[in-house]
């Protein structure tokens, strides 16, 4: 039987070989395909991850833009508003749908718009422009001082497609700077008056006085009575001059007619402490701080602030401090630092005792303590409502 089939078997064997070769080729093809699929899969996964990351970054950016206190506005090449964040709505009062596709010039007077256009021109030619201060206006027509930063927006190929504009309200900052400048100017005027008063006293009065004495010694020797009476008249005039000078000196030593506002004085006090502290304390006001505060209360508050800042400079080894002055039913001064903290067992010496006395004298209270998160918090409060304010003097 084997013999009979032997030629067929030879043929079969050939067929088998061909089939096997084909199978092997298929297997290889399948392997290659599988490999390719795997690669594609990996590529897809990588792409997906990348997309997710890009989406997350975009979402973060959108969240920042939405949450920002600053107005963030993007405009196209012809300066029409394309995006408008809630900060812009809060600052300028236009709702998004009212301002989209309108020119950004809507937000500012003509002169400020000229300025904006020249900043845009500078970005077109030099790729960059510095931040600047400007005067824009709100939907209700009121003005607002803003710090403006304009930056180019480009597409993937680097072509300029518009400008992003960030505007920050600096009204309060400018007001505080102006008050500080006024307080400094006041202080300079006082220093100058002081110098003039001293000069008048030390030099002018002494000279006039000396001249009077010299004349007196001459009358003693002058024989003629008419000459002597004339000299006496001159001496009387010199005496009157000295009295006038004294009066002038007295007036020079009086404070300027309008005392600086409490806010300005608080800012001045903290600015002065900056050298000793090595940093600028942050200052915050709330409520009508300048309204209807008795001078005496204001003076006590400034003294308390001075002592608190001096303690921070001398004892706290802090790198930051916060000053809050809050006027409501009571006047609250809070001074916080991030330094070593205060030992509760500390035996209070003159400074802190003095703060307590000043507070109690005005019917208020004083407390100082370490904070759980480190540093020291000092609170000094005085009632402002008429009936709970028993202080006299
Ligand atoms: N901000 C502060 N941080 C750390 N320690 C403070 C602070 N303020 C006060 N102290 C501590 O309280 C003590 C008493 O302060 P004070 O009565 O003002 O007296 P003085 O400043 O003359 O030492 C200080 O010597 C200091 O040890
Ligand atoms: Mg002290």
Summarize this structure briefly.
By secondary structure, this protein is α+β, with helices and mostly antiparallel strands. 57% of the residues lie in helices and 18% in strands.
What does this protein look like?
With 393 residues, the chain is α+β, with helices and mostly antiparallel strands. It has four domains: 20-65; 68-169, Beta-Lactamase; 174-253; 262-388, Histidine kinase-like ATPase, C-terminal domain (Heat Shock Protein 90, 2-Layer Sandwich). Helix content is 57%, strand content 18%. It has helices at 2-67, 86-92, 96-99, 110-126, 171-221, 225-253, 262-277, 295-316, 350-361, and strands at 71-75, 81-84, 132-137, 143-154, 160-169, 282-286, 321-327, 330-337, 365-370, 376-383. A five-stranded antiparallel β-sheet has the order 2-1-5-4-3. Strands 6-7-8-10-9 form a five-stranded mixed β-sheet. Mean pLDDT is 86; it is low at 387-393.
Number of strands: 10
Q: In CATH terms, what is the architecture of the largest domain?
A: 2-Layer Sandwich
Structure classification: alpha+beta
CATH class category of the largest domain: Alpha Beta
User: What helical percentage do the residues reach?
Assistant: 55-70%
| CATH H-tier superfamily of the largest domain | Histidine kinase-like ATPase, C-terminal domain
The total domain count is 4
The overall pLDDT, averaged over residues, is 86
Q: Write the H/E string, N to C.
A: HEEHHHEEEHHHEHEEHEE
Shape: elongated
């Amino acid at each position: 039987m084997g013999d009979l089939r032997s030629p067929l078997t030879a043929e079969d064997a050939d067929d088998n070989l061909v089939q096997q070769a084909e199978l092997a080729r298929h297997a290889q093809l399948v392997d290659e395909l599988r490999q390719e699929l795997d690669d594609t899969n990996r590529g897809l996964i990588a792409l997906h991850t990348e997309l997710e990351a890009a989406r997350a970054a975009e979402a973060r950016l959108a969240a920042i833009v939405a949450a920002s206190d600053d107005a963030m506005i993007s405009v196209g090449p012809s300066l029409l508003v394309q995006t408008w964040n809630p900060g812009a709505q809060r600052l300028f009062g236009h709702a998004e749908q009212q301002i989209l596709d309108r020119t950004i010039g809507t937000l500012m007077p003509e002169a400020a718009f000229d300025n904006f256009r020249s900043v845009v021109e500078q970005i077109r030619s030099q790729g960059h422009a510095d931040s600047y201060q400007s005067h824009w206006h709100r939907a209700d027509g009121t003005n607002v001082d803003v710090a403006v930063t304009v930056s180019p927006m480009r597409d993937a190929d680097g072509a300029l497609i518009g400008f992003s504009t960030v505007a920050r309200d600096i009204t309060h900052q400018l007001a505080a700077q102006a008050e500080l400048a006024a307080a400094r100017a006041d202080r300079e005027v006082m220093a100058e008056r002081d110098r003039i008063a001293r000069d008048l006293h030390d030099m002018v009065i002494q000279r006039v006085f000396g001249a009077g004495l010299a004349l007196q010694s001459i009358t003693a020797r002058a024989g003629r009575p008419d000459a002597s009476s004339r000299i006496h008249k001159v001496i009387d005039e010199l005496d009157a001059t000295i009295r006038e000078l004294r009066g002038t000196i007295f007036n020079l030593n009086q404070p300027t007619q309008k005392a600086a506002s409490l806010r300005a004085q608080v800012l001045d006090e903290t600015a002065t402490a900056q050298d000793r502290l090595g940093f600028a304390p942050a200052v915050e006001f709330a409520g009508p701080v300048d309204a209807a505060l008795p001078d005496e209360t204001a003076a006590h508050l400034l003294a308390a602030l001075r002592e608190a800042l001096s303690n921070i400079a001398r004892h706290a080894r802090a790198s930051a401090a916060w000053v809050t002055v809050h006027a409501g039913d009571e006047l609250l001064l809070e001074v916080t630092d991030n330094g070593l903290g205060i030992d509760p067992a500390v035996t209070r010496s003159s400074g802190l005792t003095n703060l307590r006395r000043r507070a109690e004298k005005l019917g208020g209270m004083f407390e100082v303590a370490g904070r759980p998160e480190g540093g020291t918090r000092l609170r000094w409060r005085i009632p402002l409502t008429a009936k709970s304010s028993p202080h006299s003097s």
